[in-house]
Amino acid sequence: MSKKLYEIGDMPPLGEVPEQMHAWLIRAERFGQPTAAFQKEVVTTPSIADDEVLVYVMAAGINYNNVWAGMGVPVNVIGARNKAGETEDFHIGGSDASGIVYAVGKDVTNVKVGDEVVMHCGIYDRSCPWVKKGGDPMYSPSFKIWGYETNWGSFAQFTKVQAQQCMPKPKHMNWEEAAAYTLVAATAWRMLHGWESSSVKKGDVALIWGGAGGLGSMAIQIAKAVGATSVAIVSGEDKFDYCTKLGAKGCINRNDFDHWGMLPHWKDSAGYAKWLKGVRGFGAKIWEVLGEKRAPNIVFEHPGETTIPTSIFVCETGGMVVVCAGTTGYNATVDLRYLWMRQKRLQGSHFANTVQCNEMNELALSGQLDPCMSRAFTYEELPIAHQLMADNKHPHGNMSVLVGAAEFGLGASGKPAVAMVHPTLPKGDVHTSPAPYPMSTPLPGIAEGEPITIADDGSKVRDLMHRGIISCAPDETVGAVAKIMVGNEIHAVVVMDAQGAAVGVVSQTDMVLARQGRTPDQARSLRASEVMTPGCATCDADMLLSDAVSLMTGRRMHRLVVTEKGQPVGVISMTDVVRKIIGD
Ligand code: NAP
């Protein structure tokens, strides 16, 4: 062994693994913004197991995952691993890379020392019973994202990977380009090709959200390769050229429409009609771009909450909306009528298995997949690249950072079978979306995670409730109920039957909905029983205030009828809670 530690850019002789290596480390005590969280350190080079490979990293890809790893939210990845028995008190991130194989475990057959490889980020336990009996490793409880959920990612001179993660590096790409595409392209591949009869086919129409983004730019190329026609959605016309050069038939500027967000309530006929008008206009725009009246057979989704209602509406009968993220929010709303009557499929998808990663990589090897690298950084600039992402100031496309490669532009040898198009990325683009959560998010109640501590001062509903119930009879007119509401400065009236049982609530929303499509006189003469929301959500006076709030937020309501010994005795409302918060 000639040296214990090699400097960055000073490549050890092939196959010689130094005792120590340089790496960018995240430690719990400096969780926070990327420029503080990532620090350069020297650590012991990891040893490998029988099915593992040690790769000398030439370049690493940058993903949102490690912005969040550095912040320590939504998961403290170091704490989670320590809990599971791993001893390292640091995290080396990096879920994309290109490099050279330096050592292999004794069971490794697919790569040898000296091979130039790219690595995908799907790790699983090969002894998992599900995997052993031939199940998709993506469904294995042992599945993890390398360099986020696991340590020893690509932000170091050497990375430790499973042999199945290694794939041939496209010879025509330089190191930084080769490090840029795998995570997003493999995810897009599974979304488009992983769902049997719904997978994208020649002649299909694919609607691609975020066509100039990391996933979208890959999806356009994957759809093109199979002979499908894609329509890309973007937030500005400056990105049209980029998407069409990648292979989209045409683009739509989402800012030309304003019907985004959760669906209006189906009882809100005016709101629903307005939404329908917006979504129909959007559908007509798809026809215009296609030059024919066809609906997308497959919709490539990741914005989530703001776009899912539209995606499901415009999707072809029998088609599929496939989703791998909820960048704008997780509570996507669905009008079930369209789902069941038109027999559409809403399919979740997460990363990709080994076979799918390799299928995707064939496309890259052949030259049909541009890595869409927007910017490469030096090793020193790694925290800055992450900071740009955290601040939403990074360019569209995929970013890389040099690790072992001494200069930009090295590593390419040979030409692809298919000539590559190198579209120009939109310049000066600003991300308007909130920074997405990491692709792997622990699910409350399923995956292990830090328990959320409920801030609770022990207040009970009885401490804040209004005693007494302002009520009306079921056959009282809406006009009379409105007077009760206004006269008492309240937002809802409880409907009580002759036996004194609370049978429903007339809220302000119910009143406004009742007015839709009617004259004021017609609305006024309706009966409370006709407009009320039937049933009555109740809570006991002794319930914790925080539990009552959760009950209201979960049901999207603003008040609960309070009971004592099963009898209604008062009301607690969100307004009361707001008053408590502001100290009124
Ligand atoms: P990205 O490069 O930031 O692209 C996201 C695109 O979404 C942007 O280009 C933006 O394009 C578009 N967008 C933003 N806000 C939108 C809105 N309100 N409505 C419609 N479109 C909007 O990110 P990415 O790499 O493509 O990743 C996208 C999401 O997938 C992230 O949340 C990421 O964490 C997740 N992901 C999941 C997996 C998985 O395996 N589950 C893998 C990779 C990524 P315009 O502004 O031009 O419309």
Automatic annotation (TrEMBL):
Family annotation (SUPFAM superfamilies): CBS-domain pair (SSF54631), GroES-like (SSF50129), NAD(P)-binding Rossmann-fold domains (SSF51735)
CBS domain: residues covered: 465-522, 532-584
UniProt keyword list: Acetylation, CBS domain, Cytoplasm, NADP, Oxidoreductase, RNA-binding
Annotated GO MF terms: crotonyl-CoA reductase activity; RNA binding; zinc ion binding
Transmembrane segments annotated in the record for this chain: none
Enzyme Commission number(s): 1.3.1.86
Classification via InterPro entries: ADH-like_C (IPR013149), ADH-like_N (IPR013154), CBS_dom (IPR000644), CBS_dom_sf (IPR046342), Crot_CoA_red (IPR010085), ER (IPR020843), GroES-like_sf (IPR011032), NAD(P)-bd_dom_sf (IPR036291)
GO CC, alphabetical: cytoplasm
Subcellular location: Cytoplasm
CDD domains: crotonyl_coA_red
Gene3D superfamilies for the chain: CBS-domain, Medium-chain alcohol dehydrogenases, catalytic domain, NAD(P)-binding Rossmann-like Domain
Oligomer status and interactors: Homotetramer.
Entries under PANTHER family matching the protein: QUINONE OXIDOREDUCTASE
Protein name: Crotonyl-CoA reductase
Designated gene of the protein: ccr
